[in-house]
From TrEMBL:
Protein's organism: Streptomyces formicae
InterPro entries noted in UniProt: SOD-like_Cu/Zn_dom_sf, SOD_Cu/Zn_BS
Family designation: Belongs to the Cu-Zn superoxide dismutase family.
Listed name of the protein: Uncharacterized protein
Entry keywords, A to Z: Signal
Length: 216
């Protein structure tokens, strides 16, 4: 077994940091970085955290987090997505601030990065892929075979959700987290966050293949 993350063996880097938004230049956000990604990986472990503020697709300063429905996902509302992979599987956690208090959102990991159109994100990431796409068969479209992160925003507009699976993402197979108008796998797409999901460097996964951890 590979030991836990040892500081000296961890390759960590802030891969991208959107330009800091000067105070007052963006209509009221507080000067934090508009987006950032951090990654740490060693052998059979992988950790990634991405965060961003939502902006409409027409924003002068584009964001990896795109809102299509500002009534439910206002500009400058915030999201972070964390992915943790270890010998126990994959945990994905989403956290948001600035949503509509009390509203129940449907949230999933989708296949493609976001685009100007809500459809750009493609279908849901599926561990076992439905041969019929777009997938509507509940044998495939369910929270065990997909990553669902539905949440209801609290009175302060914040929310969070976490999903754990024994499997990991195929490289390049997962590209975004999409927020829907309704929970449960349906409803309009109201926002999308492009997320660089990854996998441990020690793993080489063929599409559709189940990974066996090497025995030591
Ligand atoms: Cu979805």
């Amino acid at each position: 077994m590979v030991a836990g993350m040892v500081a000296g063996a961890v390759a960590a880097a802030v891969l991208a940091a959107g330009g800091g938004v000067p105070d007052g230049a963006d209509g009221g956000t507080d000067g934090e970085l508009s987006s950032s990604v951090a990654v740490a990986a060693v052998a059979d472990q992988y950790w990634m955290r991405a965060e961003a503020r939502f902006a409409p697709p027409t924003a002068f300063i584009p964001s990896p987090a795109v809102t299509y429905e500002q009534g439910l996902v206002p500009a400058a509302s915030w999201i972070s997505v964390e992915q943790r992979v270890d010998e126990r599987g994959t945990t994905v956690t989403a956290r948001v601030r600035g949503m509509t208090p009390g509203h129940a959102y449907g949230v999933h990991v989708h296949q493609n990065p976001c685009g100007a159109s809500p459809e750009a994100a493609g279908g849901h990431y599926q561990h076992v892929q439905d041969p019929v796409q777009p997938s509507k068969d509940p044998a495939y479209a369910n929270p065990d075979n997909e990553v669902w992160l539905d949440f209801t925003a609290g009175a302060d507009g914040s929310g969070s959700a976490s999903a754990h699976h024994l499997w990991g993402f195929r490289p390049g197979g997962a590209g975004s987290v999409v927020l829907h108008r309704e929970p449960g796998g349906a409803g309009d797409r109201v926002a999308c966050f492009t997320v660089p999901f990854g996998s441990p460097p020690g793993e080489s996964v063929e599409a559709g293949e189940t990974v066996e951890q090497p025995a030591v």
